[in-house]
Design a protein that fits this description.
- There is one protein chain.
- About 0% of the residues have low confidence.
- The radius of gyration is 27 Å and the shape is globular.
- It has 18 helices and 9 strands.
């Protein structure tokens, strides 16, 4: 049975359960069960390589003890299984004792289950779900990679479940940003609104190609940092990273904006930051108060940009997806934020994405901003990604793919080569526009000319004649209908 079919079968089983309502809950249910199965597979490996390894889980709560069905009629099912999960498993996992000495790979269990829930009310159906997931052998590379390949299918299903999809970024965008930022072993990559971990996985794929020693592999295990506010994407992110061999994911379940940014020290800063922050949301006054007065705003995306400026190391690099509103926003806080960005960092490139990149889930047009904390901005290069021939927009049936960014890749290191999609502006032009970054491509503009008064009057007269003629035709047509 393919992994793809497995997910469909799991969802079909849960559709029969009255306690599971909608795709978001179904996927949440799948993922907590999946997490425990994956964690048990990881523990098999940890025990193999470390004779002193001790599980944080009580022995009777380990997957191998309660979940495995040996087909001898002794496996828990029905009310017995439901009672065990609701009254023993979940309460214990939520209250596991951890402190500053607890290894990260042990502490993550309690973090994952702090806000997790068992939605299923039918113990027989729950047993079917557990058995199906237990059939996956995550110690086998082939099985693990197969699941990785369809992980995006789960995310897209989740994206269809209302607002829950807001934390998904197409792989084409996360891979492209990681490719441009090009993190190196020894650098720390951060995403302060990491969702299900798309940017971190894209960064990991770049880092893994650089592995030459065992020490390199260990460094990579500690190279990713994320914060996610919502429970379900946090759970998905932790599971996703475990599947990608990050044994101790450093993913915090919390709000990146709830700490006063003036309190961040050098140790709290990062080499690379890649993210697609939530936008269009509003933050309460208590959150806004964590920022300097001139930067305070209710717009979530703007606050994340401000946060980045305080948590980026000198020499650090950023790739971030932002809506058009960030470019042209002219509120005092937006102007102050853009001035700070341009003064403290080199905003060297803005890639303007075409319509429908996030379709059908949002029609908002977005941009990728690349900047580094080196010198202040002197000029900004723009690249307008064109729609393919015959496209009016990307859509669910015509999705945005990595190939659609090849034009940017070809231009990136050859910016002097003529390309009608590229142009640049100076910092003086930005200041003259009061920090409006929404410059139009001069190569695409229709040539403008000045008209004399006589020409304008002639044009108006001609249009008036056309209107009179059209009205007369309509009148005659109506008279014909009345007769």
């Amino acid at each position: 049975m393919s992994i793809d079919n497995l997910i469909k079968r799991l969802q079909n089983i849960m559709r029969q359960d009255s306690g599971v309502d909608g795709d978001a809950q179904r996927i949440s249910q799948i993922v907590w069960v999946l997490f425990l199965k994956i964690y048990d597979s990881k523990e098999d490996l940890w025990e193999l390589y470390d004779d002193n390894y001790e599980s944080i889980l009580p022995e009777d709560l380990r997957w191998r003890k309660w979940a495995v069905d040996n087909k001898d009629g002794k496996a828990m099912t029905g009310e017995e299984l439901l009672t065990f999960v609701n009254d023993t498993l979940f309460p214990t996992l939520k209250s596991l004792e951890i402190d500053e000495t607890t290894p990260r790979k042990s502490a993550i269990v309690r973090e994952v289950f702090e806000d997790a829930y068992n939605y299923m009310k039918n113990g027989v159906l729950l047993r079917q779900v557990v058995n199906l997931i237990d059939d996956i052998d995550f110690t086998e590379i082939k099985e693990r990679h197969a699941f990785n390949d369809i992980y995006e299918t789960i995310l897209k299903d989740l994206q269809s479940a209302g607002n829950s999809g807001e934390f998904y970024s197409p792989r084409a965008t996360t891979d492209f940003i990681a490719e441009i930022i090009n993190p190196q072993i020894g650098e720390i990559v951060a995403d302060f609104a990491c969702g299900t971990g798309g940017f971190l996985i894209s960064a990991l794929n770049i880092l893994q190609k650089q592995i030459k020693t065992v020490d390199d592999k260990e460094k990579i295990n500690n190279s990713l940092f994320g914060i996610e506010k919502k429970n379900l994407p946090h759970l998905l992110c932790m599971t996703n990273l475990l599947l990608h061999d990050i044994d101790a994911p450093n993913i915090i379940h919390g709000n990146s904006l709830e700490k006063n940014i003036r309190d961040y020290k050098e140790k709290d800063k990062f080499d690379c930051i890649m993210m697609n922050p939530p936008y269009g949301g509003t933050e309460e006054k208590i959150i806004q108060s964590n920022f300097p007065t001139e930067l305070q705003t209710s717009e979530t995306a703007d606050l994340f940009v401000a946060l980045i400026l305080y948590r980026l190391k000198q020499g650090g690099r950023v790739g971030i997806i932002l809506p058009d509103n960030f470019l042209f926003g002219n509120e005092n806080s937006q102007k102050a934020l853009k001035k700070k960005l341009l003064d403290e960092c080199n905003l060297h490139t803005i890639v303007k994405l075409p319509a429908g990149v996030f379709a059908p889930y949002t029609s908002i047009t977005t941009n990728i901003l690349f900047f580094e904390k080196t010198v202040s901005t002197k000029e900004i290069h723009y690249y307008d990604v064109p729609l393919p021939e015959g496209y009016r927009s990307f859509s669910k049936t015509k999705p945005f793919r990595s190939i659609h960014l090849d034009c940017v890749r070809n231009w990136w290191d050859n910016r002097d080569k003529e390309d009608l999609n590229s142009y640049k502006v100076t910092i003086d032009e930005v200041i003259d526009k009061e920090y409006n970054l929404d410059f139009k491509n001069p190569n695409q503009l229709v040539e403008e000319r000045e008209y004399t008064l006589e020409e304008l009057l002639d044009t108006m007269e001609e249009k008036s004649k056309n209107i009179v003629s059209l009205v007369e035709e309509i009148r005659c047509a109506l008279e014909g209908v009345e007769e």
